[in-house]
Amino acid sequence: MIKKDMYFTVTKHWIIIIPLIIFIMINSLHPQVEKPTVAVLGNFEPKIEKKINEMLNVEKVDSVKEGKYKVERSIVDAFVLIEDGRVTIFRNDNSIRSYYVKPTIEKVLNTSPIQIKYLDKENVKKEDIYFLFSLFIFIAFGLPALLFQDEKDVIDAILLSPVKNREIVLSKVKTTTIILVLLNFFYLFYVGTLKLNLFFVIVAIGLIYVAIGTFFGIFYDNKYISFLIYPLMLFFVILPLLPNPLSGWIKEIIDLCIFSSKIPLLSIIKLFITFIILLLLSIFAFEIKIKMRRTKG
Amino acid sequence: MIENIIEVENLSKKFKENVAVDDISFQVKKGEIFGFLGPNGAGKTTTIRMLTGQLLPSGGAIQVCGIDPTKEEKKLAMKIGVVPEIQNLYSDLNAEQNLKLFADLYSIDHKRVKELLEMFKLTDMKEPVKKLSKGLKQRVLIARALIHNPELLFLDEPTIGLDPNIAKEIRKIIKILKEEGKTVFLTTHYMEEADALCDRVAIINEGKIIALDSPHELRLKYGKREFIVETDSEIKRYSFENIKALSSLNPKKIRSIHSTEPTLEDVFIALTGRRIEK
Fold first, then answer.
1. pTM of the model
2. A118 has a pLDDT exceeding 50
3. Chain B residues with a Cβ under 8 Å from any Cβ in chain A
4. Which of the following CATH numbers is that of domain B4-214: 3.20.10.10, 3.30.300.130, 1.10.3210.10, 3.40.50.300?
């Protein structure tokens, strides 16, 4: 079954995948994030200060009030307060560059120069990750519907074969997942941020999109509906219900993955369980659809 | 001992208030061509869909190859092949690709695809199925139904809309399948098709089986057999029962005498009082 779905994806539905690959390549040509500018009150050790200056644009301030004022007015990306050997960072939430201040200082304070160099060269852009999610939503919702639509005329013949009903659904999920994983890999590799933890988290969130896309694909196996109604449903109905990478605990996981190499295993398990529940729901919906077909003709 | 491959008892199907199949019972013997003959809307396709597990009956019991299709339709899948009335192939794929795809669904080696392509003279058909003629598509459908070499084949109106030569070819294929030992369950509303192919025929009208026997026996039972006598002045019909009336004719005036065999069409008219619409 999956062989057939992969064949149709590659020969017929490449039209929705190729433009996305081109889009990825164009998007990844964005300039790298500039060095963040920080206002600093207090003194680092001279050796550390030198390293900090290599990584960040540092300007000294005379008071906490001045530092906070500069952050609030977006004059700097962050304000760093050094008091009794403790470092406190006030981040400007509106600045993407401000994300790099905390990990940079942490790395300079605690780890070797090699890691500092790594961070400096391979800035992860959060917009890139969110952009990837928007691609995922597009494919996760479009592809299963198109694959169900391919089967619309031959579904009777497929149902007469020994292939189990759940395999029909699972093959759409597997095919879409393979495409998402490949795109994820290609994207992260291409933009130069191929981090294992980020890869797994993105795949886990992508799987949830696939399960929801498959669920709707079962009912809307019409290509016109999938192309016209889906985007509307997506933005007004489904998207607010989805794990939104821009907010909540998903945002925290992504932040964690960007700034460290830890694999958030518990979060991945949580996402995976959500996926399994949604997948079972899709299989159940398909079984009901077939049962109704067998009853009503 | 002749084994029944299909056993149907008091089968019925209702769609809301409409009774599509009304309490029918019949058996199909292994190795025979069994015809389901009736006009459009008589309940032929509904019956096939119930026998193949695609539709759940409202009442009655079915056994196909010893399996209940309402409960174990996937188990039945390896034993039956179905050629539907509507040609449901992947229209963008060619014959070979269609067959290979279904061979994969049945976990059958692709060698079988090659065999079937040769058997149905489809080897050179490289264009997508949507570009093939109706007759060629029908051949692909039959080949697809045979991909797993089933013992029982359901054919729903296999020659409908085909030109007479292609229809003849399809009938030839059905006869070959019987020779290979397969059982064929065939629905048709073509009398001559049922007559030429079937070992036994069930005539169905408004969801009910109104007669079931071999075409020959049905003709004997329900058909009117006559002699047609042509004399210099007239053409007269005499029933078999009235054979003595022939002796009153002057032999010198008789130009020709021949007997007429009733057709299944006559049987249908005798049973229902109307013709089968084509």
1. 0.75
2. no
3. 13, 15, 46, 49, 52-56, 73-74, 77-78, 80, 82, 84, 88-92, 101-102, 104-107, 144
4. 3.40.50.300
